[in-house]
């Protein structure tokens, strides 16, 4: 019997992205909803994949080695600053 790590090592990057999107949206790519067990199992597979391959983690994801990666507050503020937001004056 294979372990979750063995399954994660066999995932292609494109399949990983499809599984990640399914967990984020709660739906498979064909529109069918994930049940609770599918969501839990898929999330575990995604986290294991990230712990093996995620060299450039996003904020609050699993980094290579299995640690949770959190961006510094100053970096997040800069990333989500108003400088990149275009506001329309509708008056």
Q: Could you explain how this protein is built, in words?
A:
With 91 residues, the chain is mainly alpha-helical. 49% of the residues lie in helices and 4% in strands. The protein contains four helices and two strands; from the N terminus they run H-H-H-E-E-H. A two-stranded antiparallel ribbon has the order 1-2. Helix 1 crosses helix 3 and helix 2 crosses helix 3. The longest helix is centred in the middle third of the chain and has 18 residues. The chain is flat.
SSE layout and pairings?
Layout: H1 4-10, H2 13-25, H3 36-53, E1 61-62, E2 68-69, H4 73-79
Antiparallel strand pairs: 1-2
Provide the descriptors you would attach to this structure in a database record.
91 residues; two-stranded antiparallel ribbon; 2 strands; 4 helices; mainly alpha
Q: Compute the number of structural domains.
A: 1
How would you describe the shape?
flat
β-sheet strand percentage: under 5%
Helix proportion range: 40-55%
Spans of at least 5 consecutive residues with low confidence: none
DSSP, total strands: 2
Order of neighbouring strands in the sheet with most strands: 1-2
Query: Over all CA atoms, what is the radius of gyration?
Result: 17 Å
* Class from secondary-structure proportions: mainly alpha
Between the first and last Cα atoms, what is the distance in angstroms?
65 Å
The major beta sheet can be summarized as: 2 strands, antiparallel
Per DSSP, the total helix count is 4
Task: Give the averaged pLDDT, no decimals.
Answer: 83
The run of helices and strands is: HHHEEH
